[in-house]
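Chain and conformation:
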Amino acid sequence: MKVLVTGGCGFLGFHVCEYFRRQGAEVIAYDNLAKHEFARNPYMRAAARDHNRNCLEQMGVRIAIADVRDKAALVAHARGCDYLCHTAAQPAMTISWEDPELDFTTNTLGTFHVLEAAQRREFRLRFARASMPMARMRSMPR
């Protein structure tokens, strides 16, 4: 079995990759490795950015550094896969306010590209839910 996991180096994707790898699957973690929120946090160390990637490589997971917004690359990496698990996202709400185009293209256009890749390859598709629960906001931030 061969599995492509979008957002494979993120929190959800890492655990999906780990699960399938432990089942004996060939796994590709498809991730652009962007950590926009890391740039905002002065306490983050450079090593934290690559921790999941390094762990996955040690497990034998292949890392494909590419973006879900790049449909051609996504379709190419999906060749020969039995499953596509979509966990890629731009999850930081603060980034969505600062750069709504990045948020929209990653989350909406990227998901559309995943659906197209799944349709072209005619394989099973699995989605993961949001990384954070959605709460009702009392007011919009300024």
The chain has one domain: 2-127.
